[in-house]
Automatic annotation (TrEMBL):
Source species, domain of life: Bacteria
Gene3D superfamilies given in the database record: Vaccinia Virus protein VP39
Keyword Transferase in annotation: yes
Protein's UniProt name: 16S rRNA (Guanine(966)-N(2))-methyltransferase RsmD
UniProt keyword list: Methyltransferase, Transferase
Source organism per UniProt: Baileyella intestinalis
Length: 178
């Protein structure tokens, strides 16, 4: 797997064993939907895994990305991927449970990638905790990747679904804060 576009284009991304990375096709589709929001953005990749979504955002001009990966072995791979891309201090890495990560953030992101393990049931809790930790701001975008058959709600607090796409068995929903 590799970065699709931008500064880190063609850089290889190591995939931790046992995780399901966002495919290049889906990543390309996601970034075509949010492309104008990425340059200069503050990004949160909450369930980072390999870091492919956040690194793609940095490659396309995001100012900073906060990466969170709760699994220690996956976190080591994420760290190597960040170093391989030479992301430097634009990549801030956390190795916490997502709940703790959300409680530690002091800045509101412009874009949030929400891609937990599909059957984890973490979607609703993550949306709720974004609100409870005062991280939602007007215009913020949340990109939620899920199994298409496991539909997400049309809204979570101030976050309203504005787009829903299907890529095989995968669903990608875009939410915007109002």
């Amino acid at each position: 797997m590799k970065i699709v576009a931008g500064e880190y284009k063609y850089r290889k991304i190591e995939i931790p064993e046992g995780i399901r990375p966002t495919t290049e096709k889906v990543r390309e589709a996601v970034f075509s939907m949010i492309n104008f929001s990425v340059p200069g953005a503050k990004v949160l990749d909450l369930f980072a895994g390999s870091g492919s979504l956040g690194l793609e955002a940095l490659s396309r001009g995001a100012d900073i990305c906060w990466f969170n990966e709760g699994d220690r072995a996956n976190f080591r791979v994420l760290k190597r991927n960040s170093e391989n891309c030479k992301a430097g201090d634009r990549a801030v890495l956390y190795n916490h449970d997502f709940r703790k990560c959300l409680s530690l953030l002091t800045e509101k992101p412009d874009i949030v990638f929400l891609d937990p393990p599909y059957r984890s049931g973490f979607y609703e809790e993550a949306f709720r905790l974004l609100e409870e930790n005062d991280l939602v701001k007007e215009g913020m975008i949340v990109v939620a990747e899920h199994l298409y058959d496991n539909k997400l709600s049309d809204s979570y607090g101030r976050l309203v679904k504005i787009k829903e796409k299907k890529y095989g068995t995968i669903g990608v929903d875009l939410f915007e804060a109002r």
